[in-house]
Structures are given as structure tokens and as C-alpha cells.
User: Fold this.
Amino acid sequence: MRNSTSISNFIILACGVTVAALLALPENSATSAQSSLSTAAQQPPQTVQTAEQVYKNIQVFKGFPASQLDSTMAFISGSLGVKCNHCHVNPFDKDEKPAKQTARRMIRMVFDLNKGTFAGQSGVSCYTCHRGSVHPIPVPAVGNSLWLPAPTPPKEAPLPTVDQVLDKYVQALGGVQALQKVTSRVAKGSRIGADGVLVPEDVYHKAPNKLLIVTSYPAEVFSTGFNGTAGWGRSSKSGVRELPGQVLAQFKTEAEFYKEIKFKELYSKLTVVGKTSIGESEAYVIEPTPFEGSPEKLYFDTRTGLLVRRYLESPTILGMSPLQTDYEDYREVDGVNQPFLIHWSIPGRRWGRKIAEIKQNVAVDDAQFNPPSPPAK
Assistant:
């Protein structure tokens, strides 16, 4: 259904930080990123391009935005626990595998169920039945007795307020004054591909809201930036492209330099909803409601106060797709604690960023955040 395995390199490399939409990491990220961008990236930007306008041999996704196709493919892959080659061969538009025809029938079934039973809402999806397996399990498990009395849950201590959790977080980072003394940050390190391959990656961040990420594969460099107004992506081989609206909105939030002390400005509502375990630690869970988009979840370590996880869901054609971001290995740099290891996870895939060095309050030219000029004709 796709005509290139590298269709989402801009989004993955630039917005893996925050984006669940349009994620379709290549089978081998170091190899695939060296191939040319897809036809979708080469076409001039339009308001809305449908899947069949951009890709070949589209049958069940006609009329849907082309920008949602990759995230939907990733959603199917994670729901069934399979890689792209379970249904596809190269080129992707060929119909040589019976599994591809089966997938089309199942997608139509999901559409029909949601339309006829759930008033067009995403009541069921691929994951509803498959749960990470190619073959759904139609028989209930045995061994549980529903007639035994449920154990009484232990009495929990009262949850802290939103202000208490956020204040502790800011103090754990170094405090408001230490954060405000920093006006720029340059992080150098590596992108950790889903295949474990490391490639150089630099992140330039400048107050109040400028961000640039440069990922350098051996044969191609991907850059994505936001200059406070406009967002953009660029491949050294294929030129500049616009970021889809949802990706741009999330990248814009990530570009906020002082977001750690601006939560109440960035979200319409914040609520402490509970406490949960993450690894061997516990975390308070805050649910922030964005001004646009779906609610998120932020997890703050109950002991250290640091943000250790962010969870959000974004819509795809078949249902909501989750993205989990884990922040690890906090270290102090000029009085401010920063995570030196970040992992992003979607169903079936995990990748990350390993930072080797962070420098703060260094000179960063505003011009490098601007969209590159088109080549002269």
C-alpha cells in the first residue's frame, strides 16, 4: 500500500519526541533512512491529499488523508505483532501475499462494525481482537473464580495536589531561577534506531520556542525545525517539506523552552488521577488536557519528583495510537537536571536518543531555525 519504506523519516526523526501520528519506523532504520523519500514527500504541499492521490493501489482507505496512512500501518503492525513484510512485498503496492487481501477484509469489517454499531466512533479496532497476535483467541481463559470475594484493596494515602507535584518537579530540576537563567541548550548524541543502530543526532533549543533536530545518517541528513512561527522538515537528498498539522502542533509544544514551568499555560486543565508503578518506582499521574487534541498522562516519580514518562494517544484511521516517552538518566548541567536518555515506544517498536553532552547558554544563531530557502531555479 506504500511506495517507499522511508515515508515517515521526517516525522520519526524530528517528532519522535512527541508524535504518535504518522509513525512507521523502517525495518532497519539506518538502512532505510538512506533511501529516497517517497512520492508523498516529493509532491508540492496541498491542503489535504487523500491516500489514493499519493499512493498506488489504495482500496480500503480511499478518501482518507494520506498523512494518516503510515500511522495506521504502524497501528496494524503493533496490533497483530507483525512486521510490514507480513502483508507486503517490495514494491508495497503489489498484492502478492494472501495476508494483504485478508487485511483488507478485516479493515472493512472494522469499518462496518464501527459504523453500524458504534455510530461511526472507534468502538473496536484491530487490537480489540488480536491483542498483539496474528490469530485472535476466541476461547475464554480458565482458572479464575469470579465467585470468590474480591480482596480489600489497601487504604492509600491522599494524593497530592497538582501544584504540589509540579512544584516538586521544578525543584527537582533545579528550581525556577536556575531554569530561567538558561536561554539556550545544545545536546549532542545519537539517535537509537529501532534496530539498535546509533547515528549522530544534535538538538538545538533556544528560548522562547525555537527547536532544531539534525539526524545524520551516512548518506542522508534529516533536519526538522520550528522558528517560533513555522515548522519544517528537510532531507539533504529530497529537499523541504511541510509538517502535517498534528505533528506540527506537538512539535510546537516540545519547542517551548520553559515548558517545565509553564504547564498551566500549555494546558487547559491538569488533574492528579492516581499513582502507579513504573519499574521499581512509583509515580504520581497527572492528566493534562490540551487546548486541542486528546488528553495526555504525565508520570512524576514520587521520590525524586522528576518527570519519568509521558503518554499520549493520537487518532489514526482505525483507532487511537499510543506513544510513550520515557525520560531516564537525569544529570545536572549548570544547576539544571536534564534527561540524558530518552526512549519512545509505540506498539511493536522502540527507539530513542542517547545524549553524550549538553551545553547551555551557548550562542545559537536564530537563522538556523528558519525554513531553508528553496533552491534557485
Observations:
- Residues 98-117 form the longest helix (20 residues).
